[in-house]
Amino acid sequence: xxxxxxxxxxxxxxxxxxxxxxxxxxxxxxxxxxxxxxxxxxxxxxxxxxxxxxxxxxxxxxxxxxxxxxxxxxxxxxxxxxxxxxxxxxxxxxxxxxxxxxxxxxxxxxxxxxxxxxxxxxxxxxxxxxxxxxxxxxxxxxxxxxxxxxxxxxxxxxxxxxxxxxxxxxxxxxxxxxxxxxxxxxxxxxxxxxxxxxxxxxxxxxxxxxxxxxxxxxxxxxxxxxxxxxxxxxxxxxxxxxxxxxxxxxxxxxxxxxxxxxxxxxxxxxxxxxxxxxxxxxxxxxxxxxxxxxxxxxxxxxxxxxxxxxxxxxxxxxxxxxxxxxxxxxxxxxxxxxxxxxxxxxxxxxxxxxxxxxx
Length: 359
Prior knowledge:
This protein is mainly alpha-helical. The protein folds into two domains: 1-56 and 63-167, no CATH class; 171-359. Helix content is 70%, strand content 1%. The chain contains twelve helices and two strands, in the order H-H-H-H-H-E-H-H-H-H-H-H-E-H. Strands 1-2 form a two-stranded parallel sheet. Helix 1 (2-35) runs antiparallel to helix 11 (313-339) and helix 5 crosses helix 11 (313-339). The longest helix is centred in the N-terminal third of the chain and has 34 residues, at 2-35.
């Protein structure tokens, strides 16, 4: 029985590791698909012009043109969309497998139960959002939610991997107390990063990346004319088609400027947070703080490069991936914060305690 459980645990750990890798690929492909305007590369769902892959030969192209006269086939947009869908489907199957194992192992040896089910719930909604992205013609609310779901899947898959690995830090009582005091700081940090990712998704889905082509100013002004109400109208009607965006220039400027202000707030907060973590007397905490700060610096550099170099595709994709990685580093710290164990007393301390008890 113990051997069977050990094999199941190793299988779950392998599946979780594969899910992390696949989730990163799916996030990257999603960013690439969005940035090359391939979100509507296939006008139907889940297939592409009625095909499992996409139409290729002359006969298939003729049938596609007849069935979808208002959506001509563009090969440079069909394949990114379908490759993204297939990788996402494989990821969904992996997570379904993890949820099945968790259901079978519920209540056994502290095996994570609710987290795999939460991941499955998110993946199901991701499929729905993927469908709505096509059927609602890139409605910004759906596109942004789809991005957040992808990042959440990536981060929570990593959290599941760490929990299945079961390697909590062992810290002294003093370090444990200091680390526990930072738990509210970490919650705020995660909230700020998630909000900033949402702002980035809103900026991208409303095609506001080019609204400010200079840095650090925008339109050669520190505070340009902008329309915040229109830029952040979350109740805008659906359709007819958001490819290219429908907002005015002032509304797009508002989104871009708020995203920059949010980036400044995240940078300031995380910098202070990492500085405070450096004061904890444990090398692992210091290393993780340095990793968080490094991820933050890279993300800021990528964001500035996007503006200065007019959104080059590789940099833009890396900026999306960088946001997910930054959240991942914070999730790693969170797992260790809540799973940390007390460092066992050394032999001298145990001998001293025994001697005191004998007296």
